[in-house]
Design brief:
The complex is a heterodimer. By secondary structure, chain A is α+β, with helices and mostly antiparallel strands. Chain A is built from seven helices and seven strands; from the N terminus they run E-E-H-E-E-E-E-E-H-H-H-H-H-H. The longest helix of chain A is centred in the N-terminal third of the chain and has 11 residues. Classes of the chains: A alpha+beta, B alpha+beta.
Chain lengths: 222, 559
């Protein structure tokens, strides 16, 4: 059987506006969005650009918007009439491929790492909370940034839930020596309205595990 | 054209590449990392995060036992010097990696805690676990690079190594997002671009970028590869639906003490799976399938239910959920919740997981070509004919360190190349967009992948391997006649076209080595030579490129 879907196509190098292009594609009951994109690239349209990785929801590379909601393409079944676009609010390189380069640069800019450890002796007590472990399960798919109503890449690519999760990871690391709460406030996290719309596909409660520990009783906080 | 000059170029940014880059920089070198994906998106990212550290001597384990287990498991093809290096440096690599920002399993007193049940083939447990899967390790890897002054070129694919006076002096590369070529000029070049699991797509659990670049780059630059026929198939991969074909659901220890394999008639094909190596279990599965025992989905049934009925059933379920839990969601996705609760059998088929073979290099990761180093899955000889679970993460950090240090030290004695060495390679990159031939690169990639699974897969024979080599040769000819859409920015077809020659070279190296090894050993199973060759001493198969084609030679394995 075959179904019809639309994909948002855009090449900023050429200018103009994004356009929705319709495709008719073969599908069975459990065909995924990723299989469909691959099928289009292989059999219909060699110009379609999209990212993917592990095919089993572990690497974070294939996040797209499906009917306006962020989804991992590899773990989402394709359905008649689906509209597939890039993650919202992110700069598009082409089609479904967003520019991820600034998210490595963010690590440098905000010193999102522990200090050099030098010589070490064993054993070494390094207690790790369950909250810290949960935050380390972040696959960096960037769905959280795409769903934060206040996130504005043009204004400040750093001020979004993704960087907040990184700050919280370090805040909870027993070796951290930088005041991550101050960093969060300086970035402007105090203005977070607490709407809880930052959505994690993989179940990290960003508001509870990342935002609250960083802003805590920050005076501006409702 | 973009030109970068550096002391050390590292190709690849999984655990091996990142460790090599950080160590080279610590040793005082300037470093550029070129990575096809964003930094830290190699196979390390989707590993289980379980890593062998040093043996626990307090529990009666020893380095000698660790070495012996690896060599016995590798069926005596391993290079003992490399195995001793791995066992000896394991603790150092563990602590260095924790210094990147990782924390392995430790108890309240801060002692590293090794897992209760060792992966198949280990006599004692040496493995520590991570707070989450490989992705938790990649947070630390990305952080360590951010902390350094290493120059990072993400989404940059290397098409060929640059040569001067018979030595390697960097690489030609394409910046994939812009489509612009770049000359990466270096005094030392570390190839850490992983293995080639994706040569078997979709019968693989590897990342799509892992297509054999390391092997293609190395061969063309004059390096020798060792035991390329040794491709590890994880015995238990998912068979259906098609989207999840090849996704991992476990290794022998996953079977628990009472797990068993059943064929399509419900007959028991294998029991007592837990202590067996991956190669041994994968072989039993493919041989049973060959005899007609496959289910309608092409696999066998892994029945874990007897574990639940045993007195230790609860313990077993608890252990599996703790250490393999994250992989159970793939099983649940494919076969439903009853399956991920171990209450119904799983349809399983071996899936390409890891290349034991790779660039032949010494314990400092030096290949026979001046200026060229290899570490991680790119390097051959560490694992022999079968890799034991939890040792690849040890390998990437131990040999990443060694490669980085040697590359930095030896760069000091070399002069910088001039960018003219890159001229022809850059011209070749510029010629891709708008090529007006007859074959799309993806069409040839898919043909090669199907061929590798069917003829150079987990069960091989001489006739099939000869046919595979002929077909690889015809794909190589067709790859000179490519059709590529005419634009540069983020054009997947250009990336496919760059990967294709690496894949062809790697595929040929695997097939010709498999034909040369007229015995079954390790992960290499020949239907026409089902046993070890006991007539002569154990041999390593070496392959090099002569002109456009590969040729093999054999040498005695061991010291």
């Amino acid at each position: 059987m075959s179904i019809h879907i639309s994909i948002r196509r855009y090449d900023p190098g050429k200018g103009g506006e994004p356009v929705w292009v319709d495709y008719e594609v073969p599908a069975h009951e459990r065909t995924t969005v990723l299989e469909t994109l691959t099928n289009i690239y292989e059999n219909q349209d060699p110009t379609l650009a999209f990212r993917f990785g592990c095919r089993f929801d572990k690497c974070g590379l294939c996040a797209v918007e499906v009917n306006g909601k962020p989804r991992m393409a590899c773990y989402t079944d394709v359905k008649e009439g689906m509209k597939i676009g890039p993650l919202a609010g992110m700069p598009v390189v082409r089609d479904l491929v967003i520019d991820r380069a600034s998210f490595f640069e963010a690590l440098r800019e905000l010193e999102l790492y522990i200090p050099e450890q030098g010589e070490r002796s064993e054993p070494r007590v390094m207690e790790q909370s369950e909250a810290h472990k949960k935050l380390l399960s972040c696959v960096e798919c960037l769905a959280c940034n795409a769903t934060c109503p206040a996130y504005d890449f043009e204004k400040n690519p750093l001020l979004g839930p993704y960087v907040v999760v990184k700050l919280a990871q370090l805040h909870l690391d027993p070796r951290n020596e930088i005041d991550r709460r101050k960093q969060a406030r300086d970035l402007g996290l105090g203005d977070c309205g607490g709407c809880k719309k930052c959505y994690c596909i993989h179940g990290i409660n960003i508001r509870k595990l990342a935002v609250e520990p960083l802003v805590g009783d920050w005076p501006g906080q409702a | 054209m973009e030109v970068r000059k550096t002391d050390v170029l590292v190709i690849g940014s999984g655990g091996a590449g990142v460790m090599a880059a950080v160590e080279a920089e610590r040793a005082g070198a300037s470093v550029v990392v070129a990575s096809k994906e964003p930094l830290g998106y190699g196979d390390t990212r989707i590993a289980l995060g379980v890593m062998s550290t040093s043996p626990d001597t307090a529990a009666g384990d020893s380095e000698e036992d660790f070495v012996e287990d690896m060599i016995r498991g590798g069926e005596y093809l391993n290079d003992p010097k490399l195995v001793r290096a791995l066992a000896g440096d394991a603790m150092d690599a563990t602590l260095t990696f924790e210094g990147f920002g990782h924390i392995f399993s430790r108890d309240a007193e801060g002692v590293l805690t090794r897992m209760a049940v060792p992966p198949g083939g280990h006599r004692a447990s040496r493995a520590v676990s991570s707070p989450w899967l490989g992705v938790s390790m990649c947070h630390a890897m990305r952080a360590a690079v951010a902390r350094s002054r290493i120059e990072v070129l993400e989404e940059t694919v290397c098409s060929e190594l640059l040569m001067r006076d018979g030595g390697v002096v960097g690489a030609a590369a394409l910046r994939m997002m812009s489509g612009e070529p770049a000359a990466l000029l270096a005094k030392s070049t570390v190839v850490a671009a992983g293995g080639g699991g994706t040569l078997y797509y979709p019968h693989t659990d590897c990342m799509p970028a892992v297509v054999g670049d390391s092997f293609g780059l190395g061969l063309k630059a004059g390096a020798e590869l060792v035991d390329m026929e040794q491709v590890q198939f994880l015995p238990f991969g998912i068979t259906h639906p098609p989207a999840l074909l090849g996704i991992p659901c476990g290794e022998p220890s996953m079977a628990g003490p009472f797990g068993r394999l059943l064929n399509n008639k419900g007959e028991v094909v294998l029991e007592n799976i837990m202590p067996m190596t991956r190669a041994q279990v994968a072989r039993v599965i493919v041989e049973e399938i060959q005899k007609g025992g496959a289910t309608e989905h092409g696999g066998l049934l892994l029945d874990l239910t007897p574990n639940l009925d045993s007195p230790d059933g609860e313990f077993f379920v608890m252990m599996l959920k703790k250490f393999a839990g994250p992989f159970l969601d793939g099983v649940g996705k494919a076969y439903g919740k009853e399956a991920s609760d171990f209450k119904v059998p799983w349809d399983v088929l071996p899936t390409a997981h890891y290349n034991m073979g790779g660039i032949k290099s010494d314990a400092s990761c030096r290949s026979r070509v001046a200026g060229l180093y290899a570490c991680g899955q790119a390097q051959g000889g560490v694992m022999g004919g079968n890799r034991l679970g939890s040792t690849s993460l040890t390998e990437i950090f131990v040999f990443g360190k060694r490669a980085g240090r040697a590359a930095a030290r030896e760069a000091a004695g070399r002069t910088s190349p001039d960018e003219t060495v890159a001229g022809e390679a850059i011209d070749r990159l510029r010629s891709f967009p708008g090529s007006n031939g007859n074959h799309r690169p993806i069409e040839l990639k898919r043909r090669l992948q199907t061929l590798m699974w069917e003829k150079v897969g987990p069960l091989r024979d001489g006739e099939g391997l000869k046919q595979a080599l002929e077909e690889i040769e015809s794909i190589r000819k067709e790859a000179r006649d490519l059709r590529i859409t005419d634009f540069c920015r983020c054009n997947q077809e250009i990336t496919d076209a760059i990967e294709l020659p690496h894949m062809i070279a790697a595929a040929e190296a695997i097939a010709i080595s498999a034909l040369e090894r007229r015995e079954s050993r390790g992960a290499h199973v020949r239907a026409d030579f089902p046993e070890h060759d006991t007539e002569k001493p154990v041999q390593n198969v070496l392959v090099e490129m002569a002109g456009d084609a590969c040729r093999t030679r054999c040498m005695e394995a061991g010291e």
